[in-house]
Design a protein that fits this description.
This protein is an all-alpha fold. It has a domain of 125 residues. 56% of the residues lie in helices and 0% in strands. The protein has seven helices and no strands. α1 packs across α2. The N and C termini lie far apart (175 Å).
Length: 212
């Protein structure tokens, strides 16, 4: 990517403002915004050009070995545009190893290809490493932190095995203080004046004298 003299001036001013923040004139701000838009457009254009070259490279690779010269030249151009070589590119270069140009490109592509493989393996290994770490349930963490939990000795009983407490019996309902009391039953005469039992006769009654 090449910058013009005016763009370099704006870029230098933007870097100075980033290193030493200070109030910038409105003209400098507008120049920085225009430069940012130009950079974004250049990046989009580079991505479109790279996609076009890669599609053309696939067609040349499918026609190997008859298109070896065109393929090697196009691969060199695509690498300069930011293309990352893949397994198909490496396989094609190994098949054309007899050419000095192919051998040089193979040596150039092996480094970036190995870096991409390591990056993919690292991304795959990260979730596996996280899954291998045993996770402590939240409930067990609380038990260990509270006194009397599993860490408090063998005397602590597992809360899950403790017998359930019986619900307390409810007391009998008391009558309201303003509630009318039930009327007392009227006593009968027998209850008021109980009958006296006759005295039992004596065991040895005296003999009465009779007149002669």
């Amino acid at each position: 990517m090449a910058f013009s003299a005016e763009e370099l001036r704006v870029l230098r001013r933007a870097l100075a403002l980033a290193l030493q923040p200070s109030p910038a004139p409105a003209e400098d701000v507008q120049d920085c915004l225009r430069l940012a838009e130009s950079l974004d457009e250049a990046l989009r254009e580079g991505a479109r050009l790279r996609a076009f070259l890669v599609a053309d490279l696939v067609r040349y690779r499918a026609a190997l070995p008859g298109t070896a010269a065109g393929y090697l030249a196009l691969l060199d151009e695509v690498l300069g545009a930011g293309h990352r070589p893949d397994a198909d590119d490496l396989a094609a270069l190994r098949a054309l190893r007899g050419s000095p140009v192919a051998a040089a490109l193979l040596e150039r592509c092996q480094g970036p290809a190995e870096q991409d493989v390591r990056a993919r393996l690292a991304r795959r290994a990260a979730p596996a490493a996280l899954a291998a770490v045993p996770a402590v349930p939240a409930s067990r963490t609380r038990l260990l932190a509270l006194p009397g939990g599993r860490s408090g000795g063998s005397g602590g009983q597992d809360p899950a095995r403790r017998p359930e407490k019986k619900p307390a019996e409810r007391p009998a309902p008391r009558p309201a203080p303003d509630a009318p009391r039930p009327p007392r039953p009227i006593p009968t005469p027998g209850e008021v004046f109980p009958r006296r039992k006759p005295a039992p006769p004596p065991a040895n009654p005296p003999h009465q004298l009779t007149a002669v």
